[in-house]
Specification:
Structural class: mainly beta
Largest sheet: 5 strands, antiparallel
Distance between the termini: 20 Å
Oligomer: single chain
Number of helices: 1
Length: 162
Amino acid sequence: MNSRSRNDDDCDNCKNQKNFGPTIVKCGCPSATTIPAATIAGTTFTVSSLILDTSYLCNPTVKLEFTSNIIATVAFAGTINFQVFKLCRGQSAPVPIGPVWTFNLATLISSQTFSFLVCDCNSCFNDCCSYTVVATVFVTGNNDDGGSTININNATLGVITT
């Protein structure tokens, strides 16, 4: 049987398999997002994404790693919530993966790295899925000095799956 033409029942047949098969390592392209200080609370920004084809893997587990460098041009106070979403063919809306990760900007003046990892163990799809990291901004205090911004630089999403 061609492993690319299996059906959904094959996932159940693979649970007792001792050979875990191939491993996929994939990185998305680094990106940058600029968030103005006057951003309305609750505004979302897509900061990183990639497409992963697990159709030839049996009962895959996906480890997602996100990393970025957050830079404030002047003193900035607020919170940025990061969430990973997955959208596979046939789904009408993205599904959240793992918890919300919070970066608190108490008084960020220069730069700070921010990273997290999360596993997607609910991957019994015979499909390509798009994984996306979305940032939701909540500004506190008076940050709108006419020129302050937050830059999420070198935002990269990577996966290891087997």
